[in-house]
Amino acid sequence: MRRGGRSPTFLFSCLCFGFAFLYVPILVMIAYSFNDSRLVSVWTGFSLRWYGALWENEQIIDAAGLSLRIAFVSATLATALGTLAALAITRMGRFRGRTLFSGMLAAPLVMPEVITGLSLLMLFVSLEGMVGWPSGRGADTITIAHITFSMAYVAVVVQARLTAMDRALEEAAMDLGCRPMGVTFDIILPLIAPAMLSGWLLAFTLSLDDLVIASFVSGPESSTLPMVIYSKVRLGITPDVNALAAVIVAIVGIGVAVAGWLMARMARAGRLD
Amino acid sequence: MTARLRRVRVSPGAKLGRKSPAQRKAAALRRPERLWRRTVAGVPYLWLLVFFLAPFAIVMRISFADPLIGQPPFTPLYDETQGIQLTADNYRFLTEDDLYWVSYLKSLRIAGVATLLCLLIGYPMAYGIARARTVWRNVLLLLVILPFWTSFLLRVYAWMGMLSGQGVVNKALLALGLVDQPVQILYTDLAVYLGIVYTYLPFMILPLYATLERLDDDLLDAAADLGGRPRQAFLDITLPLSVPGVVAGSMLVFIPALGEFVIPSLLGGLDTLMIGRTLYDEFFVNRDWPLASAVASVLVLILVVPIVIFQRFSQPDRETVR
Q1: Which has fewest Cβ within 10 Å: A4, A64, A114, B134?
Q2: Which domain holds residue B52?
């Protein structure tokens, strides 16, 4: 405890309560994925049958494949656009329409999904009527929608890094005659690479997780994983979704551990904070 | 849209409209730089204009159209025989039908109360993390962020299992002897409150932690040296200095919670009318695009003020706390 802290026991119990609140439901959900019974909340014995059922469910496997493809493409493009946006905000000084730009960059962070989804669908329908593109809706329109809202998250992460960064290196390079483009590629990009990686991971999970926006802008033949899950759980709890949840939590856990290790290594190598 | 270029010193030759060879060389060198600067700001700017701002304009415009059976299912803005067609019928309908009033008010109440609950739970947690030893701080912070990385939909689903008739919560209540028979929690407003607080708590803790962590210890030491009690120091120093975090966190919870769809539709009852759910049904069940657009337009108008507040308090270049 540092000086000036309030009663440690009070804070400690708050933390315990808070973390229990955050983690107990997830743990209970995973525990019941090993339950033999079809009735989710009655424990009858240990079993892996729901994992087997999950593996044989082609609808879920196909949807997961589609979601992963969309997430990969949208996260990559969102990282590119979000990084450019963060550079524009932090390194380009004042330019015409900067206020509108930063407003448009912050708004998707909080905009309710129903509004983003509805408005993007209206855009796609209008565009199709006017210029014939996009013809119909599907993976492409979902990807565009996901890029739009996740680039804002990437921009926040990268912007935080760019503002916290020591600018001495950039200034030194400028003094030595390096042009802004050279500074960006040779100095800024290597330094913000860890932030770009965490931005990419964030965009990837956001895309993988999105139900509402995808429901609006998808076509009849493109159901993403959350859409399939939602149609299953809307009517109640089903054990194979518990198994799916356990798989996802396991993947996320491994992913976060690997990403943390990678970033720690990059930080050591690049003498970052 | 384009980045304004640094002003170049004007030489006598340039004033006459002629360029010296050196200037021409400099201009040629600058061209890729200018292109680069334009790309950096221009590409994301254009993307947001087309895919974020323009859609709002279209939604506003469709909210003034009449529904139509066909594709697209609304009347065009301009008709060769009738000229420009605009109707305020959708908005009139919004004010006349109780469903929408109830939905908007209930959403405001649920989002407001849930935000307060998040603040009450999140503030001590953020404070506890900020005061913890450095080694522990990163671990605790990671524990806050970790649920955020797992699926939002599945975390809401986890509460369906917890709150059901034979779920863990009811079993615990029965075991403790607090109730005689399982109580109905799932499909009530209470479940919606729980779901929102649960899924949005990390959004409250992170900005709070960010301001509390930067708090200067010297201020608290000074207060202690001057005879201030810890309680008084907290109220006079810590609390006022953490206001930016409180505002940013509250907006991060309040605004998306206001339009929340998944939580009320999975955890709420039929009477848990939140505006996001009403809009979704208007669109997918009733297929009334113009009315759904009007509902969305009003929601955007309601959100303008909180979004402006959020933006002012979340800009990293406008730091109020050192």
Answers
A1: B134
A2: 12-78
Residues B28, B150, single domain; the answer is: no
Mean pLDDT by 10 residues, chain B (322 residues): 44 51 62 80 93 92 82 70 77 89 94 96 93 86 85 90 87 89 90 95 92 83 83 85 91 92 92 90 88 92 88 58 32
Q: Which residues of A touch B220 (CB under 8 A)?
A: 3-4
Mean per-residue pLDDT for A202-206? 90
Which one of A16, A115, A126, A140 makes the best mutation probe of the B interface by having the most chain B beta carbons within 10 Å?
Answer: A115
Each residue's pLDDT tens digit, A145-163 = 999 999 999 999 999 889 8
Q: Delimit the domains of chain A by residue range.
A: 58-236
Q: How many residues does chain B have?
A: 322
Q: pLDDT-based confidence at A260, cuts 50/70/90?
A: confident
Per residue, what are the HEC states of A206-256?
HHHHCCHHHHHHCCCCCCCHHHHHHHHHCCCCCHHHHHHHHHHHHHHHHHH
- My answer on whether B156 and B52 are in the same domain is no
Q: What is the pLDDT of residue B10?
A: 45
Choose which CATH entry (1.10.510.10, 1.10.3720.10, 3.20.20.140, 3.30.360.10) describes domain A58-236. 1.10.3720.10
Q: Residue B79 pairs with which residues in a beta bridge?
A: B83
What pLDDT sits at residue B88? 85
The span from the CA of A157 to the CA of B145, in Å, is 14
The answer to whether B204 faces chain A, any CB pair under 8 Å, is no
Q: Give the CA angle between residues A148, A152, A156 to the nearest 5°.
A: 165
pTM of the model: 0.85
- Report whether pLDDT(A2) > 50: no
Say yes or no: B27 and B141 in one domain: no
With beta carbons under 8 A apart, name residues in chain B contacting A114: 259, 261, 276, 279-280, 296, 299
- The answer to whether the beta carbons of residues B292 and B282 sit under 8 Å apart is yes
Per-residue H/E/C for A58-75: HHHHHHHHHHHHHHHHHH
Q: CA-CA distance, A197 to A189, in Å (whole number)?
A: 11
* Alpha-helical regions (H) of chain B: 12-15, 21-48, 54-62, 89-96, 98-131, 134-149, 152-163, 168-175, 189-213, 217-225, 230-233, 239-241, 243-258, 262-267, 275-284, 289-314
d(C-alpha B292, C-alpha A82), whole Å? 30
Q: Rounded to an integer, what distance in angstroms lies between the CA atom of residue A34 and that of residue A48?
A: 6
How far apart CA B13 and CA A119 sit, in angstroms, is: 53
Q: Which residues, 6+ apart, have CB-to-CB distance to B51 below 8 Å? A: A120, A123, A144, A145, A147, A148
What's the confidence (pLDDT) of residue A251?
87
Span A237-247, pLDDT tens digits: 788 889 999 99
B269 Cβ under 8 Å from any chain A Cβ: no
Residues across chain A? 273
Q: What pLDDT, on a 0 to 100 scale, did the predictor assign at position A8?
A: 75
Contacts of B121 in chain A (CB under 8 A): 14, 17-18, 21
